[in-house]
Structures are given as C-alpha cells and as structure tokens.
Amino acid sequence: MAQWQEVSEKSKLHPKPVGLVLQYGTAGFRTNADHLDHVMFRMGLLATLRSINTKAIIGVMVTASHNPEEDNGVKLIDPMGEMLTPAWEVYATQLANAEQDHLITVLKDLVQKESIDLTNQEAEVFVGRDTRSSSARLSDAVLDGVTALDGRSKDYGLVTTPQLHYMVCCCNTRGGYGKASVEGYYSKLSQAFIQLTKSAPNRTDDQKCLLVDGANGIGALKLREMEPYLQGALKVSLFCDGTGGKLNHQCGADFVKVQQNSPKGINRCCSFDGDADRIVYYYSDDHGRFHLLDGDKIATLISTFLKELLTKAGLDLKIAVVQTAYANGSSTRYLEDTMKVIVRCAKTGVKHLHHVAQEFDIGVYFEANGHGTVLFSKAAEEKIQQLCDDSEGERQGAATLLKNSVDLINQTVGDAISDMLLIEAILAIKGMTVQQWDAIYTDLPNRQLKVKVSDRRVIDTKDAERKTVSPAGLQEAIDRLVERHQDGRSFVRPSGTEDVVRVYSEAATQVTRLLNHLYLNQPLH
Ligand code: 16G
Ligand code: ZN
C-alpha cells in the first residue's frame, strides 16, 4: 500500500539509534532529548492510529515535566482527556523500540490486532509542547508522523500539559466541557473563580496576593497570559518565571517537595512543575522554619470544603479521597477518623488514581507530590445543577458554590493553575490563613530515599505498592523494623520512571535508635 511506502520513507528522516530501548513508563517516554526524535515521529503515527480506532481526537504532549531541561518526553492523551489506555502503552513501547526495517511490520501488526480500517478514515491529533529548547523540533517530528499516515493535526504550540488535556476533552465532547482554546480555558476558570470569591467579599489584600514559583517553565508563561481574565480577583507575583533561570533548576514543585526548602524565604507561596500539572504550597514561620503543604494537605482542604457544602446543600453524594502509599499517615487518619470520608489507596501514577476516583460521585485524588484533581460523576453534576435551579436560601448558596467549583476544576488531569485557583477560593471563603490550613493535622516525620540496584524488577509489590511479594523475606524484614516504632510504616517499590528502587518510611517521632539507647536504655539492635 502506498501509505506504508510513505511512512517507511518518512521514518528514515527520523532514524532510530540501533539498539536503543525505551519504555512507555508511568507518564510516557522520558529521557535525554537527543534520543527522542524517532520516538516522537512514531508517537505521531500511533496517535493517528488511536484516533482512527477511537473515532476521536487524540492529544500528544511533548514534555518531561519536572525533569531537567536537557531531558524531554512525550505522552498521549485519550478522547476524554485521560491518559492513554494501558493496552496501547504496550504498542507505544513496541513501536518506539522497533528497529528501522521492522517498523512497518510492527505497525501492520497493530493495525490488524485492533482491526483498524485505514481506508477512508478520518484522524485528528492535537499537539502541544512545553518550553524546553528541544520541544519545538520534537513536536515537529510528532506532526511529521501524523502527516505520514494522512492524519489531520492541530498544533497548539506552547501549552501546559493540563491545557492540552482540556482541549482534547472539549473537542471530543463537542464543546460540552468548554471552548477548545486557551482563551476558552482562561475564561472558564476565571469566571468560576470570580463567582466563587464573590462569597468572600471581605478578602484582604494579603489574601488576594499570592507568590507563584513557575519552575521557569510553561506554567509561568500561561499564568501571566491568564492574569487579565482574573480581573484583579487574584494578584499573582511570579518568580522563577523563565526570564533568567533554568527550567526546574533549584525551583519548582519537585525541588520544593524533595528538598523541603523554598527557593526564597517567603510567606504563602506555591510552586508549579515544568509542565504545570503539579502544585505544592508552603510558607516560612516566624522562626524561618519551612512548612510544606503537599498534595495530602491539598486533598484534605478540598475534600473538607466539598463535604461541608454537600451537607449544607443536603445532597447525598458519595465522596472519597484517593491517595497513594506515599500519603502521610496523619492525613489518612484525619480523613478517615475526623472527616469521616472514604479513603482509597492506588498505585503511584495519575492514571491509577484517576481510575479509582471514577468509582465515586465525587472523587478527590492527589499524590503527595502535588499532582491531583477532583472528578464529579455525570449524576453528581446533574444533581448539583438541579439544586441550583430548584432550591433557595442556604441550600441554593451551597449548590451554587459546588457548581462554581465544578467549573473551576480541570477534571481531565491534575492542573496547577486550576488547583491553585480552587485553593485560593477555598481559603478566601473559609477565611483561613495558610497557617490554619497547615494546622488541620501534623505530618508524621518521614524520609524518602532512592537506592540503585542492578535490577529493580526483582521487586514486586501488591496492595497498591504497600507490600512486597518478592524477593522472598524482604517484607518480613521490613515488618520487623516497622513494628519497633510507634505509628511506623514503610514500603519499598521499584520506580516507574528511573532505574532505581524507592524507599519510604514514617513514624511518630524521628528520635534515632542511638538516642533511645542512650537516654531510654532501649536495646540498640
Ligand atoms: C510520574 C507520574 C507521577 C508519579 C511519578 C512517580 C504522571 C502524570 N506522572 O511522574 O504522578 O508520582 O511518575 O515516579 O502520572 P516514580 O515511579 O519514579 O517514583
Ligand atoms: Zn508534571
């Protein structure tokens, strides 16, 4: 077929380095930008086939998120704005690793397995990219791949990852989710924010001002673009805005979370990551001590707010919080015991949390690292809308706040800009300072480290990564250590993005065994 001939010819312009093996990991492909040209071309091909297969628009985002500027990556977005379905991740890996003369065979195999009819089929792919210097040429390679299979493409250029998810969802729902343009995104979110904060008429200037660390990335650029739409309802002071520093270098959500340190000594502040799908908050207290409000604290604030509104509105909707094994034990305990909300644990990676959150009327999901959002079922959205129309007084007030929250939240994926606006609105409506928010519960002291091993795949886990099943004896050894510490908890899991094993542990205190031995006369072993 002429089509295969063209793909074969074009693929020679994007040659694969012989022997290079990459994997479609937790959030797509990620590695040094110099090794990705062939992967991008092939993901253009894959997205086109997926578009024919689903009869919908598919997104391709070029970014390596919080990783260093020298890296890059790519991930595909499925029709409703969610992550690519796992079966196709396998195809993505096969395609990326096919040697040059096998590429067409692998493609034909896929077409056959998925019964894709290539004759007279329309395909459309949306492409977006972050601010990395390599991103423009790499997204051109994606576009080449789409064209090679006669697909149509729309290049959104510089956008945040969540913005591209939003565009895909808007178009596939024929405008049902919003207008598929950056202006549409800014208007939808800003209007909802302005409406929400009308419920807090006495906001002080202090409450209206927020310091934002843009990780020297796309989030800074887009937030600046959005500011006029907010009409002064939020005054953002941006730093690490990409005008001087390097992407993600000593700034951004991952740096702040991992280093537990702020890029500057400051009051209420938040940090985005390199593609603006993560956010963490923090402040320094009077003694200059740094306080982090991570994804767990964010999930607590949001779920508390929503639960209170449900009660006021008299709406019987099932709300749950989805966390990962990294969630601080204090947050889980607070949510279950004090807030009385259902808490579920999912495997690391947004797609896993998203999936579990879909089981509830309202599913709030956040990873401790700040990636998360809220999902509302269709039925929940309809009930909220109905109550806005049919009720009055306090019930209607609560329903309207719920409705505006739905509009402000980007339900396709975690979105730093949308999350930030929601948090700012909640703090304003509840008249809460960042310190009061922080005091809702106190984190258990915890540590994380990564260990290089020769083969991380020897570690297999179960129970949402909280227990190991292999190698034999490892879980028993962890259990023996953990049971010696009050509120002790620890787990080991192979990373989905790096060739390392991650170790997490927490306990009620951080007093070392040596101190216990010296002062409390406890045995050292
Ligand atoms: C990816 C995930 C992030 C997860 C991290 C874990 C998405 C969009 N991103 O960055 O959510 O926390 O991987 O990395 O899903 P690890 O497996 O190396 O610990
Ligand atoms: Zn990210």
UniProtKB/TrEMBL annotation:
Gene Ontology molecular-function annotations? magnesium ion binding; phosphoacetylglucosamine mutase activity
Q: Which GO terms describe its biological process?
A: carbohydrate metabolic process; hemopoiesis; UDP-N-acetylglucosamine biosynthetic process
Give yes or no: UniProt keyword ATP-binding: no
State which Enzyme Commission number(s) the record gives: 5.4.2.3
Give all residue intervals belonging to the Alpha-D-phosphohexomutase C-terminal domain: 469-510
Residue stretches making up the Alpha-D-phosphohexomutase alpha/beta/alpha domain: 53-88, 120-171
Q: Which UniProt keywords are given for this protein, alphabetically ordered?
A: Isomerase, Magnesium, Metal-binding, Phosphoprotein
This chain's function reads: Catalyzes the conversion of GlcNAc-6-P into GlcNAc-1-P during the synthesis of uridine diphosphate/UDP-GlcNAc, a sugar nucleotide critical to multiple glycosylation pathways including protein N- and O-glycosylation.
Q: What is this protein called?
A: Phosphoacetylglucosamine mutase
